[in-house]
Amino acid sequence: MAQLSGFGGHSWMSAVNRHVLCLTVAGFATIGANAHAASVGAAGRFCPRNFTANTYSVTRFSADNVDLQRRHPTYQSGTRMYFFNWINGISNPNDRIEIAPDQSAHVWGISGPNGQMSSAAQIPVAPYFVGKVFGGSMCVSVLIQFDPALVDTTKGFPAVWAMSFEHLNQARRKSGGEPKDSYENFMEYDFFEFYKNPPPQYLGSIIHWYGRYRQDCRNRVFCSRAFSFQNFGRAIPSGTDWNTQWHEIGAIITQKTPKSPQKIEYFFDGKRLADPFYMNGGAMSFLPMEPTAPDDHRMVLLFGSNSAPLRIKAVNVFQPTDSQNLEN
Fold first, then answer.
1. DSSP label at 257?
2. Mind listing the pLDDT tens digit for each residue in 106-145?
3. d(Cα 151, Cα 324) in Å, to the nearest integer?
4. Count of domains for the chain
5. Residue 113 contacts by C-beta under 8 Å, 6 or more apart in sequence?
6. What domain of life (predicted)?
7. Does 33 score more than 80 pLDDT?
8. 211 contact partners, CB below 8 Å, separation of at least 6
9. Which CA distances in Å does 277 have to 47, 153, 234, 238, 262?
10. Euclidean distance between CA atoms 263 and 279, whole angstroms
11. What is the percent of the chain where pLDDT is above 70?
12. Domain residues for 318?
């Protein structure tokens, strides 16, 4: 989602103030088709039936399950949410995550790229992160609200997105590892960005970032190519109430196989927004010097807003296996 400092239209984020969610991680036995709806619950009904074997679920927000350390989060048992600190290890003191009486998380701030809360955070020692990042096939479901009347797109916008852990995990560079001028090739999945399209529509996109930091593309942090999903109008009714009704932002990422490329689909309230996107498939034509987009990166989930607070009721990630995830 966001703006990565100088990343064409995106900019980097920061982080939080008070409380945040209560998450539980459960490893379910394989669930049959008849049990699919019950196991997923009200959210995630659009997810493939075979994606319910492993579940990461945040169904209520609490000060007990968010790490409030702004500089260097410390390991604590149990899945948690964190202040965003991936740029320099420090979150911004002006950004906020607060808990409402209904146990939803309200997230907003004044800096960075519309992402004050993340599923993992940076620490200065190996393995250089705490939290959880997701690899392989996954179905993401996030229930949100916000007041469109408060959105000021000159400052930022509500966003639900994900970015390659392989890129964000920059602490290794400060420990004698990869130099800052090394070549980068990574992904950003913008599941939801409330800007550019006329309300109640929103932007959903896939961004391929590549190149050397501030070297290969003039006036940009990295080179980039964006792919936006179209035909949203058929899925998002004109009278959509973002302020008082909860809406489900969804995505299915299906891992590549020897016979098919990685497939990406975006959803709104259970309806697919547009035709699937096939990574590195026939729908993608590369720019000169553009490398093949990585389709095997692990993703950090990111949430935030630089104007109207983003209200989050639940976060769920359903996977057929968690064998490619990382957790610390």
1. B
2. 999 876 668 889 999 888 778 888 889 999 999 999 999 9
3. 37
4. 1
5. 1, 2, 3, 4, 5, 10, 11, 12, 13, 156, 159, 304, 306
6. Bacteria
7. no
8. 183, 184, 217, 222, 223
9. 16, 27, 17, 25, 8
10. 6
11. 72
12. 3-327
